[in-house]
Amino acid sequence: MIERSRIESLLADLVRIESINPDLVEGGSGEGEIARLVADFLSRAGLESSCRGIGPASRAKPSPERSRRASRANAVGILKGSGGGRSLMFNGHLDTVGVAGMAEPFSGRVEGGRLYGRGSQDMKGGVAAALLAVEALARGARLKGDVVFAGVADEEYESKGTRALLKEFRTDAAVVMEPTGLEVVTAHKGFVWAEVRTLGRAAHGSRPEEGLDAIAFMGRVLGGIERLENELARRRHPSLGGGSVHASTISGGQEFSSYPAECKLRVERRLLPGENSQTFERELQQILSELSAADEAFRVKLEIGYSALALETPPATSIVRALMASAEKVLGPEVRLGAQSFWTDAALLSEAGIPSVLFGPGGEGLHSAEEYVLVEQVAQCAEVLAECAREFCNARA
Ligand SMILES: [Zn+2]
Q1: Binning pLDDT at 50, 70 and 90, where does residue 251 land?
Q2: CATH code at 223?
């Protein structure tokens, strides 16, 4: 049993450190300071630990403010097994989104069983649970397989932390402690971004014979995207529902009295397992080539951007079975196997050949003005994670 006061003080320490992702929000401090705290905790618990820099913020032309303050790092600890077992990773991101509109973003205040502050739920609560789990494991009987704790940078932007981690560390499975409300989550959607530019011809508004209206052209594209959205909603995955597509931003035109020369649309497609950026590229190409065939004046350019795959770990996978069994042992038979809509680093781990699941304490206020995590669920999560490591790592590799 982990003492409640110990959970609250560790979690409050994590929440009080501002670790806003500097690529997401100008002026954010990054993960340097929190990674040092985590690495120190791991060392004191008896793990081999290190703080690994992953380079500065990635956007071009960082402000002097940001380049002075932001530092990016992963904190990694290894609890060495005695050999012959399977290795398990606990992976949690140390960065948070911004704090606009929050009254006390870094208070770590506890009230009515809730601990408040930015990142308390997403996902310092899960990070604290895994830290306390590895500490308890380090004190107990030695496991056969290794346990790797990875506190990673940049999940809220481009996942540079987990990408860097994967160059050095491989385990037989991973648990990512995102807030699932203690549900064992084996699937979530992926996403892909694209930019469509329609090209018109600028002309004086009084001369329709000379002008071509790029914004009206984009209206046709938007019609095609709406039809695609309806079609995607009909093809349903058993636990994730349909894929989807929506317009994100649009801009174009010069002034009232001119035909717009260009219109730019950004779109996002959420992906189901088995779909990827080429899936969306084909769908958009189809829409655009039909529009081009129907009107020779219609001109368009397409660019596919950043993408990340969906997660789908089969329920029969050994990590899912070990985690389900451990959760049932600690929490009782009502533990559920589920799916989430939001993307996580578990998809990257899975893509690299490490079967991964999500399991973490719940609360409320993901990315919103008031965020909290339920302290009781942090405690339960820690116990389940420790039990899961005993179950998984002591089985033969
Ligand atoms: Zn998260």
Answers
A1: very high
A2: 3.30.70.360
Measured in angstroms, how far is the CA atom of residue 121 from the centroid of ligand 1? 8
d(CA 47, CA 138): 7
Query: Cα(52) to centroid of ligand 1, in Å?
Result: 20
Tell me, yes or no, whether 357 and 276 share the same domain: no
DSSP 153-166: S-TTTT-HHHHHHH
pTM over 0.85: yes
Ligand 1 ion: nearby residues, β-carbon < 5 Å:
122-123, 178
- Residue 32 Cα to ligand 1 midpoint, Å, equals 18
On whether both 177 and 220 belong to a single domain, the answer is no
Residue 331 pLDDT: 97
pLDDT at 66: 47
Check if the beta carbon of residue 339 is closer than 8 Å to that of residue 169. Answer: no
Tell me the CA–centroid distance for residue 284 and ligand 1, in Å.
Answer: 30
Mean pLDDT, range 245-262, rounded to an integer: 97
**Three-state DSSP state, 27:** coil
